[in-house]
Protein 1
Amino acid sequence: MKNVTAKFTRIAIANRGEVAVRIIKACEELGIETVLLHSEADINSRAYRMATKTICIGPAATVESYLNIQANINGALAGGAQAVHPGFGFLSENADFAEAVTKAGLIFIGPSADSIRSLGDKVHCKELAKKAGLPLVPGYQGEHQDVPHLIEQAEKIGYPVIVKAAAGGGGRGMKLITNSADARELIESAQREAQSAFGSPKVFLEKYLDRAKHIEFQIFGDSSGQVIHFFDRECSVQRRHQKIIEEATSPSLTDDLRRRMGEAACAIATIGKYKGAGTVEFLLQDGEFYLLEVNTRLQVEHPVTEEVLGVDLVKMQILTAQGDFLHDPKQVRVPRGHSIECRIYAENPYMGGVPSTGLLGHVHWPEGPGRRYEYGFDEGDTITPFYDPMIAKVIVWDENRPRAIQKMIRVLKDSVVFGVHTNIPYLIEILSHKEFVMGTMTTRFIETYFADALKEPELTDLEKKIADGALLQLRGGQMSSTGSAEFMTVSPWTSYWRGI
């Protein structure tokens, strides 16, 4: 990374929670002031207290605040920012937002609107991948969207088939079809959910791989457009298609697989003229890999890559947006040791992941070598029902994977969060499971060994009213295809809305 004087003097952050804190810290190290664009519900938060300047852009409902393009731009301009960092979630993969930021005379810290449109749309991305010769899961990505035709295509592919939203991700608009009898109901449900979450009912079909691993590669396009990768992450531990635990690097790859997958990741990003941080996701089964999707943003799990490579991806994003970051061909990065990240949620994981809201009591994250904590809330802050209930991310590093697993278990046992339920005991169970320890887990690991935690949450009448109210506020707005920072995508309340 070049040692430069920052051209930006103030950056607006169009996000909340721990990712907003992460961006503020990177800006502080670069001598850049920050403007936090926040909702009324996030006045009492760590990012609010840390930012140089704060501007309220609307009420708690995301369609009126965090997903309101004009409100975010007006806030950035009023705050005197030269650039906007979208974090992850919300508008981070919204090409219209990136374009509007640029038209307003600001700089979007991320890929261009054209790159987001080219790679962010799942169907168009697969078309590009096909031209580039990348391996794809057998499926249907056509424009013909009437249900009888989709059923016909599903039968040609052969069950089980998974139907996915073309404009989104994060588990929304995703249904597994195992037989023809359920096909119509599930496809129609996926289309309704896709329309509600992403503003488009368009779906596509893929053959369901029942023993797959989820492997992703961190790619980065510098200021000149040169793309390289920063190796891989293992993301197979998922609940309802949402990642719970991530690792760098994957214990599943041989040297040859890692090389070939890395080359494929760089190829698709180069075709998309990508600049900044992004992720190319693959499914791996029986020694063969297939392109899953490209996430045109920073990932929730980026810290594990930073830990094994000694890089700062957020600072690199900012410097790239300034035109001040170029890959150094003399610098050969090699992963060192192993890193694991766990997402700490305010929820009861044994009741289907129902959120646990309220005032945070005493919170303690145990310090020590190879331990890193990214959190958006302190003691005395309130976990509200409006957004994703992730309290923090716990990241550990050690010399090898077995030691990293043991360190993470120790750290979780020593962590203290009073006032709300958390998923910490659940995470410890997962980390201690034989299949996880061996590194042989697949994306069906949770449903195979922790099925009780997948039960639909048993909501009280009051909780149903809260969920209904939040849904009414959110329905009709475009939800971005994200990993974690937005209520509609990651919140365990999603399970209550499966019948949309």
Protein 2
Amino acid sequence: MSILIAGGGIAGLVMGLTLHQLGQPFRIFERVAEPKPLGVGINLQPNAVRELFDLGLEVQLDQIGIRTRQYGFYTKSGREIWVEPRGRVAGYNWPQLSLHRGKFQMLLLEELRARAGDCVETGAAVAGFETSDHGAALLLTDGRRVEGELAIAGDGIHSAIRRQMVPQEGEPIWNGAIMWRGTSEAPHFLGGNAMFLAGHDSQRFVAYPLTAENPGTGLAQINWIAELKVDSARALRKGDWNRPANKLDFLPAFEDWDFGWVDCPGLIRTSGAVYEYPMVDRDPLPSWTTGNVTLMGDAAHATYPVGSNGATLAIIDARKLGRAIRDFGPTRPALLAYEAEMRPRAEGVLRANRGKGPDAVMQMVEDRCGGVFEDIETVIPRADLAAHAEHYKRLSGFSIDILNAEPPILGPFKG
């Protein structure tokens, strides 16, 4: 019998590649009939990149993304608060990657099909599950019941499996912020391959390149996010979730955000389609596992997109769960071993992202001096900024010295 996976996103596809590496039969059920490279930019931290390299994807990943060199926080007027190297430049054995989510998902799908054949069934939405002492079943919206040894929910923030486990939970929790996301053609900034966050809790702008500069034009694809706090009591219309947006809804608030080294309103104006996303997460659960069914990725721990860590956690989930299945077999003890390791870490990240994530230093500076200073040392000592950054890395599992010294979760794919 196979292991059943609900959802063909990043979590589900990495889970499939991992089970294929282990020689474990599996099948993925994805609701979308024809997956397409949709979405915007994401970052993958070195602990996740290590796992993808172990899966034999290094060459392909370098073809669709770039290796992030620098990560920094700035005030609403572009003053530098804290900047640090990232990836191999920082001393990791693996890079940090910036890439397009949709291209990454299609890469995973194509690679999985090439290795494992017809293992992803599209147009197959999961409505719920059943579990027994001997296995689990997925219930599909077309009326089918598919049996397996285990069922794994990688079906995202609106997971049908989580909804069955926690029927009283309701919709994701909105904190009153809206993110507008888009991509533009523009030069790199801050020396190239750099990511920056500017502003504070009520208003911020984030940008990073997804490609190298074109030698002919000097331009690259730049991913950007403009974020504003609005009235959290305002009811979001159903269509407000991930919908095409009007730039005039937010561009005026960023008109003065030309820092010299980057022109934020210019990026907004020259972008193509812009999409609106509410800043949402879900409360942590006391358990991810019911019988022979468990949660992973956003189905388990949907969190604010803070710290560039959401997709990374999903990838680590898949590899840790794969190791537990290798060690315990496709059994409930494997699910419980995986949950015991990953649920506390994910909960710590989720709670940190609600206010004490790495970007909290921007609000601290805004509170202490309105974002105006000559030397950041007089506002927050650099040693404190370094300690704050290191705390989040340790919480999330990508502290440099610890990660470099850790043995691999499963080791390289032998092909």
Protein 3
Amino acid sequence: MPKKNTIATTQEMASPPASFEAAMEELSELVKQMEAGDLALEQSVVAYQRGSELIKYCANQLDKIEQQVKVLETGILKPFNVDNDEDLA
């Protein structure tokens, strides 16, 4: 029985993700497929390239959010202290 090839088309692979969450979901699926050995060698290379693009996209999104938090906190990131209940009230 031939292996199931569920990797996205080249056109889908070239398009940017709709959101951070969509990128993480797509990346998770790519990892599952690659770990399961469901892809031919060429498809694995394409999946690896797409995964690299998704990681860069997610890192960029996180950087943008960090910058927004810095602005909201007047340029100073405050450490999150889980042990201090006063911060949660």
Protein 4
Amino acid sequence: MERTFALTESRPHLITEIIAHPLTQRLPAPTETSWGRYDAVSILLVEVRTDSGLVGVGESLARFAPVAYARLIEDALRPRMVGQDALAITANWTRMRRALSGRAGGMLIEAIAGVDIALWDIAGKVADLAIWRLLHGEARTDVPVYAASINWGGDDGKVAESIAAFSERGFTHIKVKIGGQVRQACERIALVRKLAGDAIELSADANWAYGLDDAVEVGRALTANGYVWFEEPLRPEDEDGYRMLRSRCDVPLAAGESNFTLDQAAPLVRDRTLSYLQPNVTRAGGITETLRMARLAASHDVAYAPHVGMSGIICEATSLHLSAALPNARVMECPATANLFKSELADLAPGADRATGGFLAVPQGPGLGLTIDWDAVASMEALARGDTA
């Protein structure tokens, strides 16, 4: 049984073990974006144990090849972390970052994210506080969320069904995936607005589908139909393209789920090219690095709107804690499609099942405020490792 310690206790909580669990699920229903069709997806669940008996859990994005992420943690991060004080979170982040040389990004930062979130989970349990309380921020007890997403694939009838389903569940903001030819995208943009009516906020996500000139045309269609933002219209490396797009159309721009570190997020935040910064905490180095990004955005009047996507329940819960604490949190993604990583891995129900009137309650228990179902972990880990016996 985990022990709870008073906030006044000064003893270190030494890390004794880090266990990486690669998890894979076959999606109950395929997800389609401009990237293509997803029939299966993976994450990495990270377990950090301490000599005090406390255990923290975290999540790494690890969408594909999760066993490789597990090996990275086991071979490169765990040797540096065992014996360290779990509460020295910033020092531990730097220690893990130095496991590999070169510019920060990729698998290393996603792997760090899982460990970092687990350390924050432990810190909350030591203090007997939810992470959103530990951050001493806005102390919101619920967070505005939007429904994600209307798939790019499918006919007009499926679009209408999706809008009706999201509206019946009380969502007041819906995101639509767009892609393909510009004319098709513009037609879909107009159709969704017509079917949703004026009372529903709409945003659009292109998943890098366009070059600059096509993005300008699509952006003008979004402006004409009153969309809240245009998400990832261009590949993330094309920072000059984002600046040019911002000068050529009026729809606010959103991006950031592809960023790993603050230095990657900073340029388009500092010059206010982006109106919405959307880091995914399980990619962006965990809570520690995501906080740096979101606080920089706040200092430049850029909204924080965390990405969740096909991640798991730990990602969703962590994003809720951050959104509850940060002053510039505008709205959080709430994926409404079936996802076993959200419905089966913990005692916290998926946000889409708990959201009411476009808001989602923040967990109240210490740390992340959830308990993992280790039987479900074992089943999904067997699939990831190819052990179906």
